[in-house]
Design goal:
It contains 4 helices and 12 strands; from the N terminus they run ββββαβαββαβαββββ. By secondary structure, it is α/β, with parallel strands linked by helices. The longest helix has 13 residues. The two termini are about 20 Å apart.
Length: about 200
């Protein structure tokens, strides 16, 4: 089974969005360079960020996100973002009325069931879990193998926390990746069995 990675851009003080669910400048780094990150050419990053992010994106088979993110993005119009094969949506509600049943989205109740479904779909590829409330629940359940953060030099002061409402202390290993890009610091932490 593929590894489970919790990932997002995050403010220096640990938020993935402000109080109004707005990311503010958290994704500005995706337009701060001259190397196209995807085929659209809309995202351009530094060469350093490209060399780190592109191989990671290419390994992702499935993204796990909460219903709130799904609703905010209008379900990505039924097409998983960034060329990902499937999206598993953690929700207590059914698919939206009129939703195309052929779209590669799977609506699952509970984080454990969502991760199991995502790993089944991903095979040997990575399962990416969106940081925030659902990501924090997956992390607290001991199902995350790796934490990746793109730390952006902004302080929000309040908002939606990277680890959601996790209320217990968890120790991670020292970061095994620390890469400085334009307007971003890429960090990767492994989650050891001792922290699960």
């Amino acid at each position: 089974m593929g590894r489970v990675v919790m990932y997002s851009s995050v403010s220096v003080d640990g938020f993935v969005a402000d109080e109004n669910d707005q990311p503010g400048p958290l994704f500005d780094w995706l337009m701060s360079g001259d190397v196209p990150l995807d085929e659209s050419g809309a995202l351009k990053v530094s060469k350093t960020s490209y060399d780190y992010i592109r191989p990671y994106w290419d390994q992702i088979g499935v993204t796990v996100a909460g219903r709130h993110v799904f609703d905010m993005t209008d379900g990505w119009d039924g097409k998983p973002p960034a060329g990902i094969d499937h999206v598993v949506v953690v929700t207590h509600r059914p698919a939206p009325e009129g939703w195309d049943p052929e779209a590669p989205f799977h609506f699952v109740d509970g984080v454990e069931a969502a991760v199991a479904k995502a790993q089944e779909l991903a095979g040997d590829r990575l399962v990416e879990v969106a940081a925030g409330e659902v990501g924090g629940q997956v992390f607290a359940a001991g199902l995350v193998d790796e934490v990746r953060m793109d730390v952006v030099p902004v302080v929000f002061g309040s908002g939606k926390r990277y680890f959601g409402s996790v209320d217990a202390q968890h120790l991670l290993t020292d970061p095994d990746v620390v890469i400085q890009g334009n307007r971003v610091l890429h960090l990767r932490y492994r989650v050891t069995d001792a922290t699960r």
